Amino acid sequence: MEELILTLIKIGEIMGHKRKNFDRIERRKLALEQKKKTQKTIIVVMVCLAIIVSVAVFFMTRNDSNDIIQKTESESEQPQIPETGNEIRIALSKITTDANFYTYDADGTTVKYFAIKSSDGNVHVAFDACDVCYGAKKGYTKSGSDMQCINCGNRYAINGLGTDNTRGGCWPSYLPMKIDGDDVLIQISDLEAKSWMF
Fold first, then answer.
1. Residues 49 and 141 both lie in one domain
2. Does residue 96 lie in a domain region?
3. Which residues of 124-161 are buried (b: 16+ CB within 10 A; e: fewer)?
4. 93 and 185 in one domain?
5. For residue 18, what are the CA distances in angstroms to 23, 51, 75, 157?
6. 48, 79, 117, 197: which sits with the fewest CB atoms below 10 Å from its CB?
7. Can you tell me the distance from the alpha carbon of 115 to that of 153, in angstroms, rounded to the nearest whole number?
8. Statement to judge: residues 40 and 105 lie in one domain
9. In a domain, 190, yes or no
10. Can you tell me whether residue 116 is helix, strand or coil?
11. Is residue 154 part of a domain?
């Protein structure tokens, strides 16, 4: 009987030893799985941070030379300012279906605007600034039968330009004008009124 008890004790010790080894192996497996999960989480967080930093650097270092949309038109010959000094006259013969860009010096601020003839033969003028994107100071470029905002990429049919922005949002800022004989007439006071956009 004593032998049986000793045998049972030995079997118990062996089983306990095996159980300890089994528990140790299971703990190692769990630790390895947890470590792998932690490593995956760290990798995902690092990739996300790298993307965020890259996007931030891209937008912080952007300038006009790396914009997707480039302004290709050059500044046109400056219009005449009659001796009265209250208005600007642009000869209708100088306005074509290509955008003509002009500037006016409003007490040290360069106010930019453009004139263009639409496919229906009408003349349209607007500030070279968007009602929303003006802070970017990028203006517009002609793209087919549209004027396109260089900052946001929105396009506007040339035939529809020269009106107040009644819907809000991006829009070539309204510049009043009238046709007087063979000239387009723009009031200097209208140019100066929106100098804050430039």
1. no
2. yes
3. bbbbbbbbbbbebebbbbbbeebbbbbbeebbbebeeb
4. yes
5. 9, 49, 88, 82
6. 48
7. 20
8. no
9. yes
10. strand
11. yes
Burial class (CB in 10 A: 0-12, 13-18, 19+), 173: middle
Q: Could you give the number of structural domains in the chain?
A: 2
* pLDDT score recorded for residue 66: 42
Gyration radius of the chain's alpha carbons: 36
Contact 88, 185 (CB under 8 A): yes
The domain spanning residue 105 has which CATH number? Answer: 2.102.10.10
C-alpha closest to that of 135 among 150, 155, 156, 113: 150
Please report whether residue 81 resides in a domain: no
Q: State whether 14 and 109 are in the same domain.
A: no
List the beta bridge partners of residue 80: 89
Which residue in 126, 123, 148 sits closest to 138, CA to CA? Answer: 148
Closest CA to 192 of 77, 76, 110: 110
Host domain of residue 177: 87-197
Each of the 198 residues of the chain gets a pLDDT tens digit; together they read 777 676 766 666 666 555 566 677 788 888 788 888 888 888 888 888 888 877 766 665 554 444 445 455 555 566 655 556 788 888 899 898 888 899 988 889 999 999 999 888 899 999 998 878 888 888 888 888 888 888 888 888 888 887 766 666 678 888 999 998 999 999 999 999 999 988
Element of type H or E holding 18: helix 2-61
Nearest alpha carbon to residue 124 among 95, 152, 167: 95
Residues 158 and 192 in one domain: yes
